[in-house]
UniProtKB/TrEMBL annotation:
<feature type="domain" description="FAF">
    <location>
        <begin position="91"/>
        <end position="149"/>
    </location>
</feature>
<comment type="function">
    <text>Phosphorylates Ins(1,3,4,5,6)P5 at position 2 to form Ins(1,2,3,4,5,6)P6 (InsP6 or phytate).</text>
</comment>
<keyword id="KW-0067">ATP-binding</keyword>
<dbReference type="InterPro" id="IPR043001">
    <property type="entry name" value="IP5_2-K_N_lobe"/>
</dbReference>
<dbReference type="InterPro" id="IPR009286">
    <property type="entry name" value="Ins_P5_2-kin"/>
</dbReference>
<keyword id="KW-0418">Kinase</keyword>
<feature type="compositionally biased region" description="Low complexity">
    <location>
        <begin position="29"/>
        <end position="41"/>
    </location>
</feature>
<dbReference type="Pfam" id="PF11250">
    <property type="entry name" value="FAF"/>
</dbReference>
<feature type="compositionally biased region" description="Low complexity">
    <location>
        <begin position="1"/>
        <end position="20"/>
    </location>
</feature>
<feature type="region of interest" description="Disordered">
    <location>
        <begin position="1"/>
        <end position="42"/>
    </location>
</feature>
<keyword id="KW-0547">Nucleotide-binding</keyword>
<keyword id="KW-0808">Transferase</keyword>
<dbReference type="Pfam" id="PF06090">
    <property type="entry name" value="Ins_P5_2-kin"/>
</dbReference>
<protein>
    <recommendedName>
        <fullName>Inositol-pentakisphosphate 2-kinase</fullName>
        <ecNumber>2.7.1.158</ecNumber>
    </recommendedName>
</protein>
<dbReference type="InterPro" id="IPR046431">
    <property type="entry name" value="FAF_dom"/>
</dbReference>
Amino acid sequence: MERASSSSSESSSSMGSSSSDQTSHFVTSSMLSRTSSSSSSAFGDYIGTESCFDILEENDVVSAPTKPSNRYRYGGRRREEREARAAAAREFPPPIPLLAQTENLLPHMPWVLKRVVTSDGRLILREEKVRHHEYFRAHRANGRLTLDLVAAAEETVVESGGMVGGGGSPRGKCMKSCFVGMTVREIRPMEIGLEPKDAVDWSYRGEGAVNLVLAYTGSSPSFLGKMMRIQKMPNDGKEDNGNTSGNGLTSHEKVIWGECKELVSCQNKEIVEFLFVKHVMRPLLGHKHVNPGMRLLVAKEFLESVENIVTSQRPSWRADAASVDTHRNSVLLMDDLTLFAHGRVEDKPCLSVEIKPKCGFLPSSSFIAEENVIKKSITRFEMHQVLKLHDNEISEISEYDPLDLFSGSKDRIHKAIRALYATPQNNFRVFLNGSLVFGGLGGGTCKTTSKVEQDFEHLLKDIIKTKDGSRANHFIELVAETVYTSGVLDHLLDVQKLDKYNIEGAVHVYYDLINQPCRVCKELEKSKTSSASQFSSMHSIPMAEKVNVLKEFLISATAKDCSVMISFRSTDAVISRSSSHSNLHLESAKQEFDYKVHFIDLDMRPLKKMEVYYELDKKIMNTYLEMVKKKEARGERRAQRQCF
């Protein structure tokens, strides 16, 4: 610190005193500023990262000490300078984030602890993760290898010149607003290539119609707490790429998603699907509840090794239908939502529930044919159950009603969860610390037997601290209370209701968009069951409106077939109230739980599936109506026998 010049004049003394005051104030405020920017803002009140200012309460005001009017009263300028130097010496260096526990990496020092002071004066130390840069992105150019740090909280979306966060609009606004503010030009997968030898570290978790899901079981810090989604390819070779360009979108799909320039201009089909989740589904369902993940480069040999390893673990009917698509050059890496904390194993167990809610409303479209009017009073799920039973895909029809789950009524939600628990099929699964403990892989489990329930009761003993025989009931109540309290299904229902015309109406504008004669109208004219003239209004609307109808229908189709993942961990009441996660008090069990909710399986639906949707809808309706006729016929015969 520079020493002020001495002067015998009183004016010079005053100036020196003023300068000293200003210098002392600058030291104090500068220290506070540096501490706040480097420590408090990033870490909060964490043990091991505090400075001399961290112990202040939230409402305390830090200011420069008041100086006496007479500078010689307490030793003069020299004393003030000594105090300033001592204050500067007391300033701690900024914390070193690389030594702390992070979101995905193992720590290089003990866990970071946060102090929680209760109202009765108790001090509780709670372990928390610290977000920071933890990935390198490699870039090769002009003979040089450049490694860029990527923060865990940031997206792996790269624009020439920097990182780009998510844009979008709140739920319920015009679909155009979903695409406002996006300036991404290129998305690069995370450049940590996986080799064939790495395949043994990934185990089969489950699969849907399009993707295989694998969980990481190895020890690499980069992948702890992660899961991988790999796209499948039909074994019959009937995958029709249609009129595709280099990025995998057809020319007609480019028209539908034209407002999102990134989807249209992206040169990689896999990245297009990532962008769809990030920029279309996440703004509609809420950024908090959707994790788009990141693309990870893989070698073809790695995918071939995965196929060889997991084939024996898959349900036979799934393995017969499709295999790993080894022509992909990347996979989707995501947080394993069956674990509460990523990158390490907690001392407290994590219980996760995966629910496939299905369509939560009854259609009211005027384009539903008269013979199919039963759609307006019977759920799609119930009618589809009849078809699955007819095709031997299930052995028993579920009593689950999606309208109960989406009702907003606590009692009806409880009824829906109990029905899912009784007949899980592929709509209800439970994981304990990442391992499947209830429900089945692939096709699912049709019925919960007494033996299954007894085993499940035993597994719940470390989560729900109640007596034997009651834990399953408390579990059902916990899930129902969380669905009711979180309100996330309200978001999902709004997105599902973007389908205003039903497939019976939307399929007509599909043929107009692809510039082909409407096959549905031709079928109706031949069958004479319905008049094709009632759909003339759909064919006559402006093309821009047709595009919007198809766009909203496809988004709705994604929402109708997605899953909801809810993760729980028991916690102390005081810690629960200070947790960054949502929390719930289960009165019947006298326990507190932290929980988090995410939507998964938000894949883009190809435009070409419009015909598939229409054919499936016809099949469902024909099978259900045939069943109704048989029931009515049996009822008539029974009535006739009673008369005789």
